[in-house]
Automatic annotation (TrEMBL):
SUPFAM superfamilies: CRAL/TRIO domain, CRAL/TRIO N-terminal domain. This is CRAL-TRIO domain-containing protein. It holds the Pfam family CRAL_TRIO. Residues 108-261 form the CRAL-TRIO domain. InterPro entries: CRAL-TRIO_dom, CRAL-TRIO_dom_sf, CRAL/TRIO_N_dom, CRAL/TRIO_N_dom_sf. It comes from the Eukaryota. Coiled coil: none annotated. It comes from Citrullus colocynthis (colocynth). PANTHER family: SEC14P-LIKE PHOSPHATIDYLINOSITOL TRANSFER FAMILY PROTEIN.
Length: 261
């Protein structure tokens, strides 16, 4: 009787036997309506950016990764906290860079010589979070010997290749830098900065995490120099052991061969 009286006072137009769960149902309906509204608002802002790019930067290419790629526009908007001006500025820079760098012209043949060093590769399996995996073997990176431009091409080619392996609904990849055997001759501040700049400026919201595996003491000074240059991406870095890789990121069947021994 007390429960019914309480309900009657709060909802005088409802019968006293009306079940309490109606409030949870109303809350869920409100939440769904909010999600739909947010989606509609995002779509409007995407179209606003798209129209602005068409008006002011009509010379930029169309199509995938072009000025009318709505998925790309949405990622840049999220990265710029839905500021139209900031997203447009970053998008135009990224699309222009893709043209000048020749991203779409990169191929297995064009990077073959550097790929054969074994300094980097795309793992055949996804990690436990369904992310494609880009692995860098730091001990095979020799900046005094290798052409830095060719290194950058290999890096971008593998980023693109990893993104092409994304399952539906997934947006981020995992980077693993194997530091076992790392020596001073492998240190390359320029390339490490380039790697993070590529993700920050040209592939926002694409890098989920970077794992530095078994970092020796000689690597720490390089990291201290690099970290301030990485902006918010520094928070994506995690120093870990091979054992962590085995236990937290892969199953026995999907573990990269270089981490099995």
């Amino acid at each position: 009787m007390a429960v019914r009286l309480s309900l009657t006072l709060r909802h005088p137009l409802l019968p006293t036997s009306y079940p309490i769960p109606v409030r949870a149902t109303q809350f869920r309906r409100f939440a769904v309506q909010n999600c739909v509204s947010d989606s509609d608002d995002s779509r409007k802002v995407v179209l606003e950016v798209k129209e602005k790019l068409e008006r002011e930067y009509s010379s930029l290419p169309l199509g995938r990764n072009g000025r009318d790629d709505e998925e790309m526009i949405l990622r840049f908007l999220k990265d710029r906290k839905f500021s139209v001006e900031n997203a447009v500025a970053k998008l135009t820079k990224a699309i222009t860079w893709r043209q000048e760098f020749g991203v779409d012209e990169l191929s297995e043949d064009s990077v073959r010589r550097m790929a054969e060093t074994g300094k980097a590769f795309i793992h055949e399996f996804l990690d436990v979070n369904d992310r494609p995996v880009l692995i860098v073997v730091a001990s095979k990176h020799l900046p005094a010997v290798h052409d830095p431009v060719e290194d950058e091409k290999l890096c971008v080619f593998y980023v693109e290749k990893a993104l092409n392996k994304l399952p539906p609904g997934k947006e981020e990849i995992l980077g693993i830098i194997d530091l076992r055997g790392f020596r001073t001759e492998n240190a390359d501040l320029r390339f490490l900065t380039f790697l993070f700049d590529v993700f920050y400026f040209y592939y926002p919201k694409r890098l989920g995490q970077v794992l530095f595996v078994e970092a020796p003491s000689v690597f720490r000074p390089l990291w201290q120099l690099t970290k301030p240059l990485l902006k918010s991406y520094a928070s994506l870095a995690r120093f870990c052991s091979v054992d962590t890789i085995r236990k937290e990121y892969f199953t026995e069947a999907t573990l990269p061969a270089i981490f099995k021994d």
